[in-house]
């Protein structure tokens, strides 16, 4: 499954680097521009589920207004700020304007890709420095009836030893809040962020194998079951997690299996 991606960044060097990163990702088609043009904005407002990665030197009211305009025109657009310099206070107006993520340019490339994958699934991802204030903002929004979404800290993904080492204290689950299934911002076919889903041992084993990119035939061989049984379990997994396909299930598994095993 591919997701359209529009990247705007004023720095040519960073645009070139992002182009190399995203050409190896699931995101297609990719547009990388110095600034948001009328044509690109028109594309974002009509593309359905898509990502707009906004590179900025310093967040501000002008950027937030552009975010609000795009998200208002297309509620399925996921806007992510990639800031060169910012403070924790910058994240509040960005999320209030409709941004689905707030990251810093020092983020590792694989962590950036995984953050965007989660954002496509409806999570809100922030730089670890902003995690607590972002969660407070979203809780306040939920108490006002504006709906809640999952808040994930963009740290501690598997393989990111350097970033994990910078995190103080013991590793904590990344999901702070899960969206309400009845919330207007979380329709029934959106993925579940609940780490306490009632999955069977067999379903969890299939999910673990799925994260390795295994086909139904390979999964059946590894677990010593028939391929038709694998298909039945996959349908049950997608139904329980409110997901649409195997790709979403694999992303969910990479994020939550550690919590389920705890």
SSE order and pairing:
Layout lengths: L2 E6 L3 H11 L4 E7 L4 H7 L5 E7 L4 H13 L3 E7 L7 H6 L4 E4 L4 H12 L3 E3 L4 H13 L7 E3 L7 H6 L34 H10 L5 H8 L3 H15 L4 H16 L1
Parallel strand pairs: 1-2, 1-3, 3-4, 4-5, 5-6, 6-7
Helix pairs in contact: 8-10, 8-11, 9-10
Briefly, what is this?
The protein is an alpha/beta fold. The protein has helices at residues 12-22, 38-44, 61-73, 91-96, 109-120, 131-143, 161-166, 201-210, 216-223, 227-241, 246-261; strands at 3-8, 27-33, 50-56, 77-83, 101-104, 124-126, 151-153.
User: What CATH architecture label of the largest domain applies?
Assistant: 3-Layer(aba) Sandwich
Whole-number tally of structural domains: 2
Q: What class do helices, strands and sheet pairing give?
A: alpha/beta
Distance between the termini: 30 Å
Tell me, briefly, the overall form: elongated
Find the count of extended strands (DSSP E, 2+ residues).
7
The mean pLDDT is 76
CATH superfamily of the largest domain: Response regulator
Explain this structure.
By secondary structure, this protein is an alpha/beta fold. It has two domains: 3-166, 3-Layer(aba) Sandwich (Rossmann fold); 201-261, Orthogonal Bundle (Arc Repressor Mutant, subunit A), CATH 1.10.10. The protein has eleven helices and seven strands. It has helices at 12-22, 38-44, 61-73, 91-96, 109-120, 131-143, 161-166, 201-210, 216-223, 227-241, 246-261; strands at 3-8, 27-33, 50-56, 77-83, 101-104, 124-126, 151-153. It has a seven-stranded parallel β-sheet with strand order 2-1-3-4-5-6-7, with helices on both faces. α4 links the parallel β4 (77-83) and β5. α8 crosses α10. It starts with a strand and ends with a helix.
């Amino acid at each position: 499954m591919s997701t359209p991606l529009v990247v705007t960044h004023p720095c040519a060097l960073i645009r070139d680097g992002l182009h190399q990163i995203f050409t190896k990702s699931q995101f297609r088609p990719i547009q990388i521009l110095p600034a948001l043009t009328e044509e690109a904005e028109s594309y974002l407002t009509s593309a359905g589920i898509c990502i707009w990665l906004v590179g900025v030197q310093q967040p501000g009211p002008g950027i937030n207004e552009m975010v609000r305009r795009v998200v208002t025109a297309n509620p399925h657009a996921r806007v992510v700020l990639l800031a060169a310099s910012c403070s924790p206070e910058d994240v509040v107006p960005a999320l209030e304007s409709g941004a689905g993520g707030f990251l810093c340019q020092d983020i590792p490339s694989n962590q950036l890709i995984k953050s965007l994958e989660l954002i496509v699934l409806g999570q809100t991802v922030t730089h670890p420095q902003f995690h607590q204030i972002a969660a407070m903002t979203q809780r306040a929004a939920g108490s006002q009836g504006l709906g809640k979404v999952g808040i994930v800290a963009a740290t501690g993904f598997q393989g990111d030893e350097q970033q994990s080492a910078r995190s103080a204290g013991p590793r904590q689950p990344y999901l702070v809040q899960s969206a309400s299934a009845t919330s207007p911002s979380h329709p029934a076919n959106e993925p579940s962020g609940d780490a306490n889903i009632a999955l069977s041992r067999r379903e969890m084993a299939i999910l673990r194998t799925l994260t390795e990119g295994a086909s139904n035939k390979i999964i059946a061989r590894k677990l010593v079951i028939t391929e038709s049984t694998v298909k039945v379990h996959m349908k049950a997994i997608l139904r329980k997690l409110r997901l649409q396909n195997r790709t979403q299930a694999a992303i969910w598994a990479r994020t939550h299996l550690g919590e389920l095993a705890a």
